[in-house]
């Protein structure tokens, strides 16, 4: 199965694009088959069309399930005094993500959660308030502020963390007795991660990827049993030092690694070059430049849930054009702007893990001599800025908290062993992957969980 996403930078034929934009996915698939089966086309275009077949399969399946009427009913039944013109306005300003399906407006599967969790004015109008969610948010703010103060007082922090992760096929996609291949992410050994241990797994693990794998997993291979859940429980030590970046301390010589483009996402497009030049001006100091990029993303880009990354052609440009995006979208824009400016930058992702919430999260690293690799968490920084927590906003430029499980150091990298069919997430890996010998499952076809078992401060 073709996995290289770099060909997504190749444009689609005009007629395919027309059908896709209208939402005639059956017609678009038919047109693509015609190109692949009956026309002599260049290899690059063939690869692009093969990828597009999969993208359309995701877009047309369940990524945008709600009709306009269904979306309006959802908003009016859950929000006090909500009017149709408000939905129309939210659609027009890009706050409510939508596409055409067969010429009719459909809204993205997370549009309601996105609106009520990122826009305080709408959250205040929810008829039945989620007190548990409000409590979690309050505890998150307290936890993050407490970490900032601890790090500044002690200069660093080390924790021992234990997590359990699971994945299983939903009942209707369970094919009992068939051979399955399953991957679950585990911690990658880094400067900040050591002492990784596997404490439990079910069924028996077939293979554990090397400690330095770009996207590290445990791999299971077995015949599927009824209602079978795949589980791994692991622990690791996680250490972070506190740093205050001083432009005056920047070394005269800076390294030249991690500066390349990586198609289709880390691309130095004409628009991103214009944006970089506007933000940078005549400045050359890497700390000042990185801070300008951080400030732009955290204060100008609205946090927003997005559709599956695989369906977005160039993620950083999407972020910079639409001025919205989630943690990974924002991180990739920052990474790209840094690389364009000669500042080494790279990806890091895995889990954000606390007693109140454990789930997927992405952030960035950038390198400035003499400091070495330091962090930038764009979405956490933006959240702090919007909440008026300026100390925490400044903290996430250069620093990270301890509530992390890093599993991935790069995007678009193969597993060890490799997956045969298209991945649930061909960009990243935080939830796991599940496939049969003749096809893989999509995210909507599996159930996943991640749970923090314990986290304890330890001496380092």
What can you see in these coordinates?
With 460 residues, this protein is α+β, with helices and mostly antiparallel strands. It folds into three domains: 5-63, no CATH class; 66-123, no CATH class; 131-460, no CATH class. Helix content is 35%, strand content 25%. A hairpin with an 8-residue loop joins strand 7 (207-208) and strand 8.
What characteristics describe this protein?
single chain; 460 residues; alpha+beta; 3 domains; 5-stranded antiparallel beta sheet; 4-stranded antiparallel beta sheet; 18 strands; globular; Transglutaminase domain-containing protein; Transglutaminase-like; Papain-like_cys_pep_sf
Summarize the structure.
The protein is of the alpha+beta class and about 450 residues long.
**Computed CA radius of gyration, to the nearest angstrom:** 22 Å
Total number of beta strands? 18
Q: Overall pLDDT, averaged?
A: 96
Number of domains: 3
Helical content (DSSP H or I, runs of 4+)? 25-40%
Intertermini distance:
45 Å
What is the global morphology?
globular
Number of helices: 14
Main pleated-sheet profile: 5 strands, antiparallel
Unreliable segments (pLDDT under 50, ≥5 consecutive)? none
What is the strand arrangement across the widest sheet?
A: 15-14-13-12-16
What structural category characterises the helix and strand content?
Answer: alpha+beta
Percentage beta strand? 15-25%
Secondary structure elements and pairings:
Blueprint: H1 14-22, H2 25-38, H3 43-63, E1 66-67, H4 68-78, H5 84-92, E2 98-101, E3 104-107, H6 111-118, H7 120-123, H8 131-154, E4 156-169, E5 179-185, E6 193-202, E7 207-208, E8 217-223, E9 230-241, H9 270-280, H10 286-300, E10 302-303, H11 315-322, E11 324-325, H12 327-340, E12 345-353, E13 358-368, E14 372-376, H13 378-386, H14 390-395, E15 397-398, E16 404-408, E17 433-436, E18 446-457
Parallel strand pairs: 10-11
Antiparallel strand pairs: 1-3, 2-3, 4-9, 4-18, 5-8, 5-17, 6-9, 7-8, 12-13, 12-16, 13-14, 14-15
InterPro entries: Papain-like_cys_pep_sf, Transglutaminase-like
Pfam family, one: Transglut_core
Organism: Coprococcus catus
């Amino acid at each position: 199965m073709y996995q290289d996403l770099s060909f997504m930078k190749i444009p689609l034929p005009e007629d395919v694009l027309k059908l896709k934009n209208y939402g005639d996915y059956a017609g678009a698939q038919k047109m693509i088959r015609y190109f692949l089966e009956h026309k002599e086309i260049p290899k690059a275009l063939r690869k692009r069309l093969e990828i597009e077949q999969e993208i359309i399969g995701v877009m047309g399946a369940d990524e945008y399930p709600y009709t306009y009427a269904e979306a309006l009913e959802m908003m009016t039944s859950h929000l006090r005094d909500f009017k149709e013109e408000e939905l129309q306005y939210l659609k027009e300003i890009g706050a409510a993500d939508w596409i055409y399906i067969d010429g009719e407006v459909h809204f993205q599967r997370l549009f309601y959660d996105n609106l009520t969790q990122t826009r305080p004015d709408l959250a205040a109008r929810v008829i039945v308030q989620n007190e548990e969610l409000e409590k979690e948010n309050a505890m998150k703010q307290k936890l993050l502020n407490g970490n900032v103060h601890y790090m500044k007082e002690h200069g660093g922090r080390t924790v021992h963390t234990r997590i359990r992760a699971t994945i299983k096929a939903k009942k209707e996609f369970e094919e009992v007795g068939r051979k399955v291949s399953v991957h679950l992410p585990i911690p990658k050994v880094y400067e900040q991660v050591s002492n990784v241990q596997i404490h439990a797994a079910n069924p028996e693990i077939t293979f554990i990827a090397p400690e330095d794998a770009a996207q590290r997993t445990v791999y299971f291979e077995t015949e599927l049993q009824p209602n079978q859940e795949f589980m791994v429980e692991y622990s690791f030590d996680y250490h972070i030092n506190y740093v205050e970046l001083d432009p005056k301390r920047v070394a005269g010589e800076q390294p030249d690694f991690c500066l390349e483009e990586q198609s289709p996402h880390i691309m130095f497009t004409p628009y991103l070059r214009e944006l970089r030049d506007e933000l940078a001006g005549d400045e050359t100091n890497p700390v000042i430049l990185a801070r300008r990029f951080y400030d732009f993303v955290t204060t100008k880009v609205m946090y927003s849930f997005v559709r599956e990354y695989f369906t977005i052609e160039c993620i950083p440009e999407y972020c910079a054009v639409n001025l919205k995006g989630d943690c990974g979208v924002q991180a990739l824009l920052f990474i790209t702007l840094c690389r364009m400016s000669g500042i080494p930058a790279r990806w890091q992702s895995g889990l954000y893990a606390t007693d109140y919430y454990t789930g997927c999260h992405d952030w960035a690293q950038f390198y400035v001599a003499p400091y070495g690799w330091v962090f930038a968490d764009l979405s956490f920084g933006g959240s702090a800025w919007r909440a008026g927590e300026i100390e925490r906003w400044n903290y996430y430029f250069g620093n990270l908290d301890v509530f992390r499980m890093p599993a991935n150091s790069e995007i678009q990298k193969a597993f060890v062993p490799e997956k045969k069919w298209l991945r649930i997430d061909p960009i990243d890996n935080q939830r796991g992957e599940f496939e049969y010998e003749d096809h893989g499952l999509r995210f909507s076809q599996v159930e996943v969980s991640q749970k923090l078992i314990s986290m304890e401060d330890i001496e380092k």
